[in-house]
Amino acid sequence: MQRTTRPTGTRPVCRRKHRRSVPWRSHRTPSAETSNAYDRAVSPPSDEELLVIRPSAARRSGILVLTVIMAALVIPTPSIYFGWAGFLWSTGIGGGALAWTLLSLYRPRIILTSRRIGLRGRIGGVRWVPRSMVALAVQGWLRMPTKAPHNVFLLDADGRRVMRLLDSIFDRTDLEELVAALDVPVAAFPGGTSAKTLARSYPDIVSWPERRPFVVALLIASGLLGSLIVLGLR
After folding, report:
1. Topology, domain 134-223
2. Rounded to 5 degrees, what angle do the CA atoms 170, 176, 180 make?
3. How far apart are CA 169 and CA 116, in angstroms?
4. Which of 64, 86, 120, 192 makes the best surface tag, with the fewest CB within 10 Å?
5. What are the boundaries of each domain within the chain?
6. What are phi and psi of 125, to 5 degrees?
7. Could you read off the pLDDT of 169-219 as tens digits, one per residue?
């Protein structure tokens, strides 16, 4: 095999490929308008907030004052008869009732967006439900042992309860605005309908204690009487 040699004292010639220079303007970052247009093209539609419903401000002061008065009446009586044990027992019940009332008056929210409906209760976060799941709204005055609030039941296509809203917490006009914004069929039941009667037409949309209020009242009374007897024996 014949090998070529180069003359002594000469340097090899290196042939480089010269890259074409790129103007500096092409290295600039895209403008803000271009970036926003790109984001709108690749991002899903925003879940726009359409309606936010808070607890009725008109009922807050009255309910809060009534709860404080009831707690003040409940605490002294066990303290007089049962001493420190009765004071601690009644204070715990009164404080718990006051805390529950404050949570009920200030924390709940109903949030309606373009794609979802959310409900935040007394405790916990927001429970979101797709708007497409709501197929029917059932509303009316439901007869209860102490009051008859206006109820709004949101049901799915199979008749299962998706959400329940009451005007004892929210204003009725706000609930009517929500139902109108959902744009679903509305069924009304006669005012003063009992939970047991309503369950015959729409099973499982009201809870077992509501269908049997007298049984629940008997159990509560038995529990309170038993606790008083235990305190009295000590």
Report:
1. Nucleotidyltransferase; domain 5 (3.30.420)
2. 135
3. 21
4. 192
5. 46-132, 134-223
6. -95, -165
7. 888 999 999 999 999 999 998 888 888 888 888 887 888 878 777 777 788
